[in-house]
């Protein structure tokens, strides 16, 4: 296994909103190939409840972009940094993205028990993340977005998504252009890990 390349993909899969080639189509076969890889992710009870809705029709992309903008404007709180310039740039150009991938799950979130909720979302979101990684490995950038869910009902109507199907993340995708993707500045493993007891660092054992 080429650990170095795999680690590179894992470390540098960033949100790419601006440095994209908006003119270049992402071939459908490439999208399908990435979905084949993504569906190797774990799936509760082996149910494979994930579904991927790929939107390339310009009219539908424009309609989704309008919903996304309305949701973003209702949701974004600049004081909390929710309206960063990169996030706004995505709002401006969502309709120009070569493709939008809406990751859905059959069923509805159970809502009451943590175990059931974790099972529900945990059966689809790992595949969505694998999809982002597989795209990244092919030079295709994406962003993990959820703001559209504010208008989930309207997007379901637009896309013909039936009752009993839950939308999760929307990945706007395109080939990267001049994007230098580096590891993010995250807390170290020692800061976010405890050993044997909550709050206890490894060297305190
Ligand atoms: C649950 C979740 C929801 C997110 N929703 C949005 C979104 O609606 N729009 C957006 O532009 N970015 C969204 N992001 C992307 C984050 O802003 C981004 O991951 C974060 O700023 C870190 O940057 P990086 O992905 O480049 O490491 C979301 C990320 C997560 C994990």
Provide a compact summary of the structure.
This protein is of the alpha+beta class and 205 residues long. It has eight helices and four strands; from the N terminus they run H-H-E-H-H-E-H-H-E-H-E-H.
Give the tags.
205 residues, alpha+beta, NADH Oxidase, 4-stranded antiparallel sheet, 8 helices, binds flavin mononucleotide
List the helices and strands and how they pair.
Elements: H1 3-12, H2 28-38, E1 50-55, H3 58-75, H4 85-93, E2 99-106, H5 114-122, H6 125-137, E3 140-142, H7 152-159, E4 165-175, H8 189-192
Please characterize this protein's 3D structure.
- The structure is a single chain.
- The protein is built from eight helices and four strands; from the N terminus they run H-H-E-H-H-E-H-H-E-H-E-H.
- With 205 residues, the protein is an alpha+beta fold.
- Strands 1-2-4-3 form a four-stranded antiparallel β-sheet.
- Helix 2 crosses helix 6.
- The protein has a single domain (3-204), classed as NADH Oxidase (3-Layer(aba) Sandwich), CATH 3.40.109.
- The radius of gyration is 18 Å and the shape is globular.
- The model has no long low-confidence stretch (mean pLDDT 96).
- It binds flavin mononucleotide.
- Flavin mononucleotide is lined by residues 14-15, 87, 90, 143-147, 184.
